[in-house]
Amino acid sequence: MTNSARTTAPSSPPSWTTRIPGQEPEWIVWVTLVVGLLIGWLIMTMVVGRTTTATVGTATLSYPARWAKVGEQGAAFAATDVESGDPFSPRVMLFQTAQRDLMPRVGTLADAATTWSIKRGNGLDGYRVLSIEPVTVNGHAAINVASAYLMEPPRSRLAGTMPALMREVDTLVASGDQYMVLAFAADSTQFDGYESLHRQLLSGWGTR
C-alpha cells in the first residue's frame, strides 16, 4: 500500500514592508517631518521678517521689530538687536544736521561727506575712514562714508570683554536745508554677512 505523496507550496519569504501593528508607514513619518520643518520655517520667517517704523523729524525708517531703541551720542535715533546677547550686534543710527554745519560755503555732496567723516570720528577710538564714494539710494544721490573704529562693550558687560573692531557705512543725502545720515555698523568679522540687512534698512529709509 502506497501512501500518496502530498506536495506543499513553498512558503513565501517574509515581507519586509509588512507594517507592524501600531507603527506608522515610513512615508507618513517623512511627510510629518517635512510639514513640521515647513511650519517652523514659516513661523521663523514671519517673526524675523517683521519690521516696525520709526519717525524722526522728516525721516522714516523701517527696521526689524525685534530690535530695541538704544541711546547713541549725537544720533536722533538708534536701534540694535539687544536680545541677541551680543554686545556688538548690528545697529542702525539716524543723524540729522543742518547743511551749513557741514558745508558753510558752496560745495558738493562729497565735500559735505568729508566734513561729516571728521565730525563722526570725534569720540570714536581709532576711527579711520576707509572710503568715500557716491551712490544712489532710493533714487536720490548719496555718498557712502565707510569707516572702522574700536567699540567698547556696554558697562554692564565690561568684565572679560575686549573692545571690538567695528565697520560702519554712513550714507549721507541732502533733504531740504538738512543732511540726513543713515549709519549701519557691525562687528568687522561679521559685517559682510549683514549685507542684505543693510540693503533692507536703506530701502526702508525715506523722507515724508
Summarize the structure in words.
- The chain is of the alpha+beta class and 208 residues long.
- The longest helix is centred in the N-terminal third of the chain and has 24 residues, at 26-49.
- Strands 3-4-5-9-8-7-6 form a 7-stranded antiparallel beta sheet, with helices on both faces. A 3-stranded antiparallel beta sheet has the order 1-2-10.
- Mean pLDDT is 83; it is low at 40-48.
- It has helices spanning 26-49, 99-102, 109-121, 195-203; strands spanning 51-56, 59-64, 68-69, 77-80, 91-98, 125-137, 140-151, 164-175, 178-187, 205-207.
- Helix content is 24%, strand content 37%.
- It contains 4 helices and 10 strands; from the N terminus they run H-E-E-E-E-E-H-H-E-E-E-E-H-E.
Average pLDDT across residues? Answer: 83
Largest sheet: 7 strands, antiparallel
Kindly state the number of beta strands: 10
* DSSP summary: helix tally: 4
CATH superfamily: Mog1/PsbP, alpha/beta/alpha sandwich
Written as H for each helix and E for each strand, in order along the chain, the element string is HEEEEEHHEEEEHE
What sort of overall outline do the alpha carbons produce when their principal axes are compared?
Answer: globular
Q: Low-confidence spans: pLDDT under 50, at least 5 residues?
A: 40-48
CATH structural class: Alpha Beta
Classify the beta-strand content into a percent band: 35-45%
Which CATH architecture?
A: 3-Layer(aba) Sandwich
Structural class: alpha+beta
Strand order of the largest sheet: 3-4-5-9-8-7-6
